[in-house]
Amino acid sequence: MKIGSYMRPHEAGEVSWTRFRAGLGLLALVLVLGTTGYVVLGLPWLDALYQTVITISTVGYRELGTFSTRYEVFTILLILFGTGTGLYTLGVLIDTMFEARVTGHFRRRRMRRRIDRLKGHVVLCGFGQVGEAICEEMTRSGKQVVIVDRLLPDRADGSSGIPMVQGDATDDAVLHRAGLERARTLVLALDSDVDNLFVALTARSINPEIFIVARANHRAAIGKLQQAGADRVVNPHQIGGAHMAALVAQPEVVEFLDVVMRDGEFEVRMAHFEVAPGSRLAGRALGEAGIRHRTGSTILAIRRGETFLTNPDRQMVLEPGDIIIALGTEDHLRQLQADTTGA
């Protein structure tokens, strides 16, 4: 789902501006035809243009040229068509400006109500190339996203189902408008490390439990962002370089992981689940739990605290709080999720 393609301008506003452009085109055509007609009637080009303008605008300055029946008939027709076209264009302009103001007001109110109903959503600060890629991946995985950026695209009318808040993310009021106090995750994809650092500090004070993923444009900013409260810090340049190097060294492995994680070409995918206290897996060894036989999922690794235990053996006992990273189909992973939550 590409945001750049599926978010379109407000249809009514687009039609109105099209009518205004059509009116300007007709007015220019009348001006050209009027000038040409007066030239045919014997006026020089500049005098013909002058006569056309004062006739269309109904200013009423002195007439130029020698009056004749043809001259008078042509002037009458020019007044009728020219004045009508001018009034039509002016009316469409006023209507469009009023409609845009009213439509924008109601659209903002409707967007505010939608955001106020959200809970446990993702707030994405920054909608540049990195932010747009992040939003595309999150919406594909079914996450509810609210975008915050200083300059939102013309397509930010909410027709895509993604609410947007225009404003400076370093402003507390803007973060509150995005529902940060009710959000589960904050993604900082701003171009400035200083802004990301400031928003991380602010967000941690507004919502102490929120999970923060921050972008770092320079390595020196990684530690500072972590100290400011970011749970994960990503350097897109470093990760992009490592990904390209991996494509050179192990292209098939990297492409397989890309397909499994993002493209959805295969039925299998990877997911992670936390072992909840009281679930059927808590306190049981992997062999005893029979995860592969029961759910069909393959356990790739277990995260315990800050340590990843890859290819765990059958004797490993699962503890509450362990994170299981598994590979399987949608049905397999759904069953594994039920086992980890006790549902």
Assess the beta-strand content as a share of residues: 5-15%
Give the name of the CATH architecture of the largest domain: 3-Layer(aba) Sandwich
Count of all domains:
3
- Biggest sheet descriptor: 6 strands, parallel
Structural class: alpha/beta
Shape: elongated
Task: Give me the side-by-side strand order of the main sheet.
Answer: 3-2-1-4-5-6
Using only C-alpha atoms, the radius of gyration works out to 32 Å
Would you kindly provide a written description of the structure presented here, covering whatever features stand out?
This protein has 343 residues and is of the alpha/beta class. The protein folds into 3 domains: 112 residues, Helix Hairpins, CATH 1.10.287.70; 116 residues, Rossmann fold, CATH 3.40.50.720; 75 residues, Regulator of K+ conductance, C-terminal domain (Alpha-Beta Plaits). 53% of the residues lie in helices and 14% in strands. The strands form 2 sheets. Strands 3-2-1-4-5-6 form a 6-stranded parallel β-sheet, sandwiched between helices. Helix 2 packs antiparallel against helix 4.
